[in-house]
Design goal:
Elements: H1 2-51, H2 57-72, H3 92-103, E1 109-113, H4 124-130, E2 133-138, H5 141-152, E3 163-166, H6 174-180, E4 185-192, H7 198-204, E5 208-216, E6 226-227, E7 237-240, H8 259-262, E8 263-266, H9 271-281, E9 283-288, E10 294-299, H10 325-332, E11 337-338
Parallel strand pairs: 1-2, 1-4, 2-3, 4-5
Antiparallel strand pairs: 5-10, 6-11, 7-8, 9-10
């Protein structure tokens, strides 16, 4: 009997140990699952805050109501005061929302040339939150695939999203590209940001008549009416302001860490050049974003009550390092065509 009791006690201790080990194992599994979930949540939050908290559709509707109320009282806000960023590079989402709130829309169509992967472009907020249709074009097949996936993953655009086209746009092909996608006549928005021959592309477009045009300008050449010469395969050059990699930046810029304190960009055209082109095509400059690299033009028969013409000089932000003497001297050594 004593031997049986000893065996029973030993079996009980083994079972308790096994059960405890089993419970600890299950606990480790749960802790591992929790750790993985927290890591995923942290990644998602990091991505969200990296992009900035989204101004949702309801908030945009309320902003629109307030904008119309102010406009009825003859109060029109500077473009730089209405910026917000959901998907645009800077505050263009807010500016475009403000503009179209006051001037209204026709067919709510946008054409964006060089739309990247869609998650950072000027059309995305209008497409996602306001039901616009878009023809988004990019020269990178990878960007186009990512862009299609981005809009397919959004509940708002999963069923009826924008058209993403893979094409390298030049003066000869741009109108045919638009026609091939049945985009002709009046559209609400054209956005051109190709870091290259932007001036020449807008100049060549004739098959659409956008009510609003957004173009990226070369900030450094703000005192000249110049563009890079036309070349179909042109690619932007990023010119370091330090004499050698890792070298100290020029006096006045060495304590800054923003892009324009480190580089000058040989690409695009100056704002005065775009103003001349716009006037020839029947458009007027109505403002820029705060930094000044995206300029907004409006067709002369649109929005005159709310958006008068402004001068290129009034849009220059002198606090932006792109206007530094160092950057200007660097870019003067490159080929520019006066227009």
């Amino acid at each position: 009997m004593e031997r049986l009791r000893a065996l029973a006690a030993s079996a009980a201790r083994w079972w308790r140990a096994r059960s405890a080990s089993h419970r600890v194992g299950k606990l480790h599994i749960k802790m591992d699952q929790l750790t993985r979930r927290l890591a995923q949540d942290a990644d998602a939050l990091e991505q969200r805050f990296a992009r900035g908290l989204e101004v949702d559709k309801g908030t945009q509707i309320l902003l629109g109501l307030k904008y119309r109320e102010l406009a009825a009282q003859q109060i029109v806000l500077p473009l730089r005061e209405v910026e917000f960023r959901n998907f645009s590079q800077s505050g263009e989402d807010g500016i475009l929302h403000y503009i179209f709130t006051l001037i209204g829309t026709t067919d709510r169509r946008a054409v964006e040339i060089c739309a990247g992967a869609g998650s950072e472009c000027n059309s995305a907020n209008l497409v996602i939150h306001h039901g616009w249709q878009g023809l988004l074009v990019d020269g990178s097949e990878s960007n186009v695939l990512q862009g299609r996936a981005f809009f397919a993953a959004r509940p708002e655009t999963r069923i009826n999203g924008p058209v993403f086209a893979h094409a390298w746009v030049d003066r000869k092909s741009v109108n045919g590209l638009l026609q091939a996608h049945d985009v002709t006549g009046e559209v609400d928005l054209l956005s051109v940001d190709i870091d290259g021959v932007d001036y020449w592309i807008w100049d060549a477009i004739t098959v659409i008549s956008p009510r609003v045009v957004v173009v990226e300008v070369n900030l450094t050449m703000s005192e000249s009416s110049v563009t890079v010469p036309y070349k179909p395969g042109f690619r932007a050059q990023w010119i370091a302001l330090a004499e050698k990699p890792g070298g100290q930046r020029p006096e006045g810029l060495h304590e800054r860490e923003d892009f324009y304190s480190r580089f000058a960009v040989y690409a695009g055209a100056s704002l005065p050049a775009f103003v001349k082109l716009a006037r020839r095509k029947g458009y007027r400059l109505v403002g820029t974003n705060t930094i000044g690299f995206n300029a907004f033009f409006m067709r002369d028969d649109v929005g005159l009550d709310h958006f008068p013409e402004v001068s290129a000089e009034s849009c220059v932000n002198p606090g932006v390092a792109a206007h530094s003497d160092v950057a200007v001297q660097k870019l003067k050594d490159y080929a520019w065509q006066e227009v």
